[in-house]
Amino acid sequence: MSDMNKMATQTIPLKPAPLPVGQRLLENGLITAKQLEETLVECKRNNQEAYLIGRTLVEKGLITQSELLNCLFQQFTQERAAHQVEPGVAAKIRFKGVEKSFDGRKVLDGLDLEIPAHKITAIIGISGGGKSVTLKHMVGLMEPDKGEVWVDDNRLGTISRQQLNTIRKRFSLLFQGGALFDSLTVSDNVAFPLRETTDLSEAEIQQRVERSLKDVNLAGMEQKYPDELSGGMQKRAALARALVIRPDIILLDEPTAGLDPIIEKAIHYLICDTFMRTRYTMVIISHAVPAVFDWCHHVIVLHQGKVRAAGPSMDIRNSRDPVIRQFINGDLDGPIQFI
Description:
Elements: H1 3-9, H2 21-27, H3 33-45, H4 53-59, H5 65-85, E1 91-102, E2 105-116, E3 120-124, H6 131-138, E4 146-151, E5 154-156, H7 161-168, E6 171-174, H8 186-197, H9 202-215, H10 231-244, E7 249-253, H11 261-278, E8 281-285, E9 298-303, E10 306-312, H12 313-317, H13 322-329
Parallel strand pairs: 3-8, 3-9, 6-7, 7-8
Antiparallel strand pairs: 1-2, 1-4, 4-5, 9-10
Helix pairs in contact: 5-11, 8-9, 8-10, 9-10
């Protein structure tokens, strides 16, 4: 068989296509075919990506923001159900027997886990259970005392510094507190990783910054400073900074910590919206239980430095494991002892 024929018969893994939001809105009877066609033409005329059609429809007053978000969530819920039935997905990140100790205390104790590619995975567990330490191992900020950490076919700890830096550029991290620079404007905060790690021109950087801020509904806030933003807006600005480099993998450390229930839900919707448009591999550390189960495909429960359970979100939510039930319900009585 010729090389050309071999290539033709190979199965090439493709990144899932972005959600056809306009088509779903049409199917739900929220817009007409004419409105959809006219809006697509308008997006093309304004050199605007088609995936922003939903927001264009909102701006034109043809649908409400709530209707758009509910449409996205319906699609995401269907995808979660499909993952429940057939969860088999290639792993993007793998831990094999990872151990890590600090001052004689073992935080990770033979940790084995897999992060499925192009899905949202939530890592949950009690405080001090090693969740943030696990996140730092994924990006090579920490090295295990024992065991292996793999990103695709690359074993961290055995590759060169240059190779590690190349892999790190595929990651973006949303810090728990946002970690915005107080002395920089929102625009400069978002532009920071582009100026530090790319050779893009200033004009290209500004274009990317404007797009990223628009993606998180912060257009017009470019010249504001972090202390002029609400907590939810700061989270969105931090997410815009995480998205601006167009990563392959996004790590989110407690993205809804310290937010009221309404803003928490808005951030979850924003993460869902981002995923549906980009199909990045996302890993969320969260204490927003049980709400987080509605916003991820896959859940990993860490307990005493090990994976207590891992699987589709609905499986974990319905688990009868007494440790998991106690954590989800927030019960004081149970196998987890705090005093």
